[in-house]
Amino acid sequence: MGGRLAVHLTGGSDERRADADARRVLARIARWADRITRHAKDSELCRLNADPRSNVTVRPTLAAALLGGLRATEISDGLVDIGLLDARLAAEGLLPAAEGPLPSAPWSLIPGARGCAVVGRPAGLHFDLDGIGKGWLADRALHLTSAWANSLVDADGDLAIRVAPGRYWEIAVDDPRDVDLSLAVLRLSSSPVGGPTQWGVATSGTSIHRWRRNGELRHHLIDPRTGAPAVTDLVQVTVVAGSAQRAEALAKAAVIAGSFDGLALLERAGVRGAVFLMESGDVLAMPETLALLAA
Amino acid sequence: MAFGTGGLATLSAVLAAIVAPVSPVATTPPTTAAQPSPAATPISVQRPIRYVQLAPGQTPPPGARVIDAKAPKPITVVTLLPAPAPRTVVVRTTQSGRIVP
User: Fold this and answer.
1) Most buried residue, A190, A210, A295, B8, by most Cβ within 10 Å?
2) Which of A182, A225, A290 would best serve as a mutation to test chain B binding (most B beta carbons within 10 A)?
3) A158 in a structural domain
4) How many other CB atoms sit within 10 Å of the CB of residue A122?
5) What is the pLDDT of residues A235-282, one digit of tens each?
6) In this complex, which of A55, A180, A202 lies closest to B33 when CB atoms are compared?
7) Which helix (H) or strand (E) holds B31?
8) Distance, CA of A171 to CA of A271 (rounded, Å)
9) CA–CA distance, A25 with B66 (Å, rounded to integer)
10) How close, in Å, is residue B42 to chain A by CA atoms?
11) Mutation for testing the A interface, residue in B14, B25, B93 having most A CBs under 10 Å
């Protein structure tokens, strides 16, 4: 799906085993990504998008990723919608812009045997799993590292994290204005009691995937209410949650919603923390975040 | 923790009349033309409409809850973060596609 990919395993004494496990997980992620990317014409996602039928059976990996997309829509109050590929391509100038408001485009997923599912959709609805897919990949890959109590999967900036009791991971929140700077450094620990703690951290924003079209600066985060790039006062949002998929969906939704509605959404969702970079240049954080800042 | 220099900031927004629909999340019946299993549970999604903003002259649909534009707005308190001290951190969360050294 493009972007960087890393697996970090710590806490063991067998370096060769860690290396072998990390390589195995990376290979699995690559195979999953090959199925759900929209950037390879023979991927399962591209075959689904090219299929003219309204009802199409998809294989388990793509079915699970699409289910993740449905969950993202649910938890984001509808602001994250993986059925907006055409609107995104139109924003990039790769498709003619739709005239008038977007038609309502409900779609469904009917689970079938052995993990397969039937996608039911209006003709012409095309899917884009990019950001949501990366959070989903990170979470799924973290399950493959269960032999390691302290592990982290980085799927192009979306992080799925397991922290062993007594350990922590330090995570830098990227400052998109300067690659050498951070907006904050988070220290994610385990609960004082019980087994390992899972975290998810994801960042979404408008300052990397952006381009100028007809003199107007546009970006890739489509507001499903308008079918156009979101008009927002937020440049970037980082969310800390219990999974990468949840963090990614909520970060994206917050950027699309803007600071006022986005903060309310994150409060309702009960996130563990959030860092915002405003258009004004201010860096803000939800109060819960303060307990996560590295000293 | 190093956030002593930060102050408290608040965010607010000016909204016009807002209407919350009676049924905030509409679910469309799923397509059933090709069900693979009789026991399968369909899952469907539709963009939920939580709020609509009324234009001048518009009236809310029957049963909708109308929020007065003059009603007090909720305020979310956030904290202004100072820049962190420089340190070496291996793992970074970034926007996708960000090239990091």
Assistant:
1) A190
2) A182
3) yes
4) 13
5) 999 999 999 999 999 999 999 999 999 999 999 999 999 999 999 999
6) A55
7) none
8) 17
9) 52
10) 5
11) B93
Nearest to A272 by CA among A239, A249, A236, A244: A239
How many Cα atoms are found within 13 Å in the side-chain-facing hemisphere of A190?
A: 16
- What is the mean pLDDT of the segment spanning A136-144? 96
Q: Are A255 and A230 in contact (CB under 8 A)?
A: yes
Q: Where does residue A223 rank: exposed (0-12), middle (13-18), buried (19+ CB within 10 A)?
A: buried
Q: Are strands A197-205 and B52-53 parallel, antiparallel or unpaired?
A: unpaired
Interface touch B91/A284, C-beta < 8 Å: no
| Beta carbons of A271 and A238 less than 8 angstroms apart | no
Question: What is residue A154's three-state secondary structure?
Answer: strand
Query: How many folded domains does chain A comprise?
Result: 1
B12-61, pLDDT tens digit by residue? 332 334 444 443 333 333 333 344 444 556 666 655 555 667 777 888 77
Which of A291, A293, A253 has the alpha carbon at shortest distance from A269? A253
Q: Provide the domain limits for residue A219.
A: 149-292
Q: Domain for residue A287, yes or no?
A: yes
Distances (CA, A) of A238 to A26, A100, A177, B77, B86: 24, 33, 15, 17, 19
CATH number at residue A210: 3.10.520.10
- Class of residue A264 by CB neighbours under 10 A (exposed 0-12, middle 13-18, buried 19+): middle
A121-142 mean pLDDT: 92
Q: Are A198 and A145 in contact (CB under 8 A)?
A: no
A117-120/A150-155 β-pairing: unpaired
Residue A163 falls within a domain, yes or no? yes
Q: Is residue A32 part of a domain?
A: no
Buried b or exposed e, range B10-46, using 16+ CB within 10 angstroms: ebeeeeebbbebeeeeeeeebbeeebeeeebebbbbb
> In this complex, do A57 and B36 lie within 8 Å of one another by their Cβ atoms?
yes
